[in-house]
Design brief:
Length: 458
């Protein structure tokens, strides 16, 4: 393995201030998925100043306008294409002390975007592509966090997007066509190590559950109403009682939130919306357990004389890292920060989810975590402690991985691609399979007698 570590490190360090500036700018301008216009504009300006020609997701006439872009570096020699990417989106978390308009980068995606700028700048240094074959695609992707399901469904209905997750949407748009391998680095809050990687992640599907009741005077005439909030509570109770039937091996997660009522306290609520995921480490289990959950939700509506509209959307596929690619990355991480600062685990699946998983269905991919943040991921105590570790280490390792994969006539990349067994033969085949997760059902329909027909399955 020929790795020009010192050369790469030097090239990144030349641009550390630009990276730190980007980290602070994007942290202070957090925006949630498909609205990350400020970070997008900031990065576009700087990528273009570096001389990159961008394919912009807001300038693609075939599709709706969303943030995100990519650019290709061609080594001039034939070989595989590696995509390395950073995410743009923040989270709604109004109670975070540094939230802006109710949003914060408490998953650290802003640091990924800042690292990408460092990578882009380092790759423009003289000799950066020397000795490499193939291409490097640098990509900034929107909307990794699967949130604001109602807003995204609205975007979908308007034709702005077709999919809830940014990478899935980019796959649909063809932005991953021709890409042979993918790599990315996500932040983490561990202090005693610098890099961590597991076997992969749970997949998820996104659920919007709308209980429908009837409003009436809560004091004077509750008998004239149907309480959608109570129906929703009953539905969730039934789901909770199903939890012991979930099997440990599938790592199922169901974590609903009630979105609240839009009426006064003296009114019987006529609507309660619940958002949730069903997560799991394999698509079969996700499908099976989701059907049970939908049955429980439907039964609760019937018990209360309420209605329930079930809306399921394809979320993210379970993520499985390519072991050979992981091994190469592990060695490079150790080379960069020392053996005792690196933990790779080839057995354990994390119960979170990422749309990087969808990429691993069709190409070899690895997503690692890098330290530098503190507090709790997705928590109000999440802060960046060391932009050096979170952004600079991230940029360095991504460039080292690119260099190791594509040097020596791209021998490593070629071997990983040749040995990889895709779950789906193509991106098109993957999309065809994932369609099965979409469901729209008005699950309980009453006739004049008050009898009901239930229908909660595709
Ligand atoms: Zn997150
Ligand atoms: Zn994240």
């Amino acid at each position: 393995m020929v790795v020009r570590k010192d050369f790469i490190v030097k090239n990144v360090e030349k641009h550390r201030q630009e990276v730190f500036d980007a980290e602070r700018f994007i942290w202070t301008h957090p925006q949630v998925g498909y609205t990350e216009w400020q970070a997008n504009e900031y990065l576009i300006e700087r990528f273009e100043a570096l001389g990159y020609k961008l394919v912009r997701a807001d300038q693609d006439d075939r599709f709706g306008k969303i943030p995100g872009f990519y650019t290709d570096l061609d080594t001039g020699k034939p070989g595989p294409m590696l995509c390395i990417m950073g995410e743009l989106d923040a989270l709604d978390i109004a109670n975070h002390p540094e939230s802006v308009n109710g949003m914060t980068h408490c998953c650290g995606h802003h640091a990924q975007a800042a690292a990408m700028l460092g990578i882009a700048a380092a790759l423009k240094e003289p000799g950066a592509l020397d000795g490499l074959s193939g291409k490097i695609r640098l990509m900034l992707v929107p909307a990794e966090e699967m949130i604001q399901l109602a807003y995204r469904e609205e975007l979908r209905k308007k034709g702005v997007i077709s999919f809830m997750g940014g990478k899935v949407e980019f796959m649909h748009r063809g932005y991953f066509d021709g890409v042979d391998l993918s790599f990315m680095v996500h932040g983490m809050t561990e202090r005693d190590i610098d890099f961590r990687c597991g076997k992969g992640n749970n997949g998820c599907l996104a659920k919007t559950i709308t209980y429908k009741g009837k409003s009436s005077h809560a004091g004077g005439a509750p008998h004239l109403g149907i309480n959608a909030q109570y129906a929703a509570m009953l539905g969730l109770q039934a789901c909770n009682d199903l939890r012991e039937t979930f099997q440990e091996k599938d790592t199922i997660r169901f974590h609903p939130i009630m979105k609240g009522v839009n009426c006064a306290v003296n009114i019987i609520p006529d609507e309660m919306i619940i958002e949730s995921y069903v997560r799991g480490n394999n698509l079969e289990a996700m499908k099976r357990e989701n059907e049970k959950i939908n049955r429980a939700l439907t039964g609760a509506a019937l018990a209360m004389g309420a209605g329930v509209v079930l809306c399921d959307r394809q979320g993210y596929a379970p993520e499985y890292h390519d072991p050979q690619f992981m091994k190469l990355t592990e060695e490079l991480c150790k080379d960069l920060v020392g053996e005792d600062r690196v933990k790779f685990n080839y057995e354990t699946i994390s119960t979170g989810s990422s749309d990087f998983g969808d990429l691993t269905c069709v190409m070899p991919g690895v997503q690692i975590h890098c330290g530098g943040a503190i507090g709790t991921g997705h928590g109000i105590d999440y802060f960046v402690e060391s932009p050096e570790r979170l952004c600079i280490n991230s940029a360095k390792i991504q460039l080292m991985v690119a260099d190791a994969l594509l040097s020596d006539d791209a021998a490593c990349a070629k071997k990983i691609v040749a040995d990889y067994k895709p779950q789906y033969a193509s991106i098109a085949e993957y999309f065809e399979y994932m369609k099965a997760f979409n469901l729209d059902k008005d699950a309980v329909v009453y006739d004049e007698k008050g009898n009901a027909t239930v229908d909660f399955k595709n």
